[in-house]
Write a structure and sequence with these properties.
Elements lengths: L7 H11 L2 H8 L6 H12 L17 E3 L2 E3 L3 E3 L5 H4 L3 H12 L4 E2 L7 H7 L5 E4 L5 H13 L4 E5 L10 H5 L12 H5 L2 H8 L22 H8 L6 H10 L3 E7 L2 H9 L4 E4 L13 H12 L4 E4 L6 H9 L4 E4 L1 H32 L15
Parallel strand pairs: 3-10, 4-5, 5-6, 6-7, 7-8, 8-9, 9-10
Antiparallel strand pairs: 1-2
Bound molecules: glyoxylic acid.
């Protein structure tokens, strides 16, 4: 990473130049008209901090615990599909960067490196994410593999029974594995290091599906995969089923309503993630920051409340903490950093977020992350 990188926005610009448009847009985009995607950012932007002065902030501490494990800052890497298309071995590099930094990494079922790949190439526990599949045997199989890989938490995604249309993907011809076509040939030719690492690399499709689905190679698009594999009948009884099968910490992701937050708590969640899937599912849903306080109230301390959706800076993260989140998750920011600089890029992103968060806490007179609260906002 030669360029001067000062912000997540800088990493996004480097990523844009390094990887093909179809891959960049998979991360950058949302569903339909991308209203909710924009709201996530706009509503975070609209909040103002309350500056406080003459408070000793020499020892601002960011350390916290997440699901009972210490973390160096209140942040985790969100599960993101196709990370291994943003950089060869992307999931392994992300897990390593997170572990070195002392924060959790969550591997997606739709990863390119498999659970076993990540386990074999890293030393620290990581979280594993799954969806409810039509074939419950596949869920059981993934749970068994996550147990064998000593994953420290299972994150169940609740908001993808059907997929919101991501209009950029078919427009760009995003396929799995990536292919050169006459339409993207120039784009790919101008991204030689990406082509060498990913297009001609050894891992080019969903690593966790190997041997699971007949003719995985016949699956070309995410929409096709989710439509055929994900279970539209899934309901809270299925969450109970997962809870009964998974002995460790359970995180329920995709909660946007206080009523669902209460149901998640009753289903035995150790944590929930307030999430609209990064604006990739229900277009027109509220921003996550706007619903966070109501959900924190509904949970009433019954489990941890995590937050994602639009975190592009330590200031954004501070706003989520101020409104009651225990920690934030980064998905898009992670993928941009990964594309921009591999493991070093992710480490850079984490340093940026950490430093921005630290200064923001200090200038709002907040001496430790646990003391974050609404008093930090105007
Ligand atoms: C997968 O969950 C995606 O949003 O693409």
């Amino acid at each position: 990473m030669a360029a001067l990188i000062q912000s997540i926005g800088d990493l996004r610009e480097v990523a844009r130049r390094r990887i093909p448009r179809a891959i960049f847009d998979y991360a950058d985009g949302g569903s339909y008209e991308e209203r909710t995607l924009r709201r996530n950012a706009a509503d975070l932007d609209a909040l103002s901090f309350r500056q406080r002065v003459m408070i000793d902030v020499s020892g601002v501490s960011l350390a916290t615990t997440l699901l009972g494990t210490s973390a160096s800052l209140p942040l985790a890497i969100a599960p993101t599909g196709l990370a291994g298309f943003f950089h060869a071995d992307g999931e392994i590099l992300g897990a390593r960067a997170a572990a070195a930094f002392g924060i959790p990494f969550c591997l997606s079922t739709m990863s390119i490196c498999s659970i076993e790949d990540v386990r074999a190439a890293t030393t620290q526990p990581f979280w594993f994410q799954q969806y409810l599949m039509r074939d419950r045997g596949f869920n059981q199989d993934l749970i068994d593999r996550a147990i064998a890989a000593r994953c420290s938490a299972l994150m169940l995604t609740l908001d993808l029974q059907v997929i919101g249309e991501r209009r950029r993907d078919p427009r760009n011809g995003l396929t799995i594995p990536p292919r050169i076509t006459w339409r993207n040939a120039f784009d790919v030719a101008t991204k030689p290091s990406w082509a060498l690492g990913v297009l001609f690399g050894k891992r080019r499709t969903f690593g966790n599906l190997a041997g699971r689905i007949d003719g995985t190679s016949g699956i070309r698009t995410l929409a096709e995969w989710t439509a055929t594999q994900f279970d539209p009948t899934a309901n809270w009884r299925d969450v109970d089923w997962v809870r009964s099968r998974w002995p460790g910490k359970l995180i329920l992701k995709g909660i946007l309503d206080p009523a669902d937050a209460r149901l998640g708590l009753a289903a035995g969640a150790d944590a929930i993630v307030v999430s609209n899937h990064g604006g990739r599912q229900l277009d027109g849903a509220p921003s996550t920051i706007s619903v966070l306080p109501g959900i924190v109230d509904a949970i009433g301390g019954g489990c941890e409340v995590l937050f994602d959706g639009g975190i592009r800076s330590g200031q954004d993260l501070a706003k989520a903490l101020a409104l009651g989140a225990r920690a934030g998750l980064i998905g898009k920011s992670f993928l941009f950093a990964l594309a921009a600089g591999g493991e070093a890029g992710v480490t850079r992103a984490l340093c940026i977020l950490r430093d921005e968060l630290k200064v923001t806490l200090a200038l709002t007179g907040t001496t430790q992350v646990g003391a974050a609260g609404p008093h930090m906002l105007v």
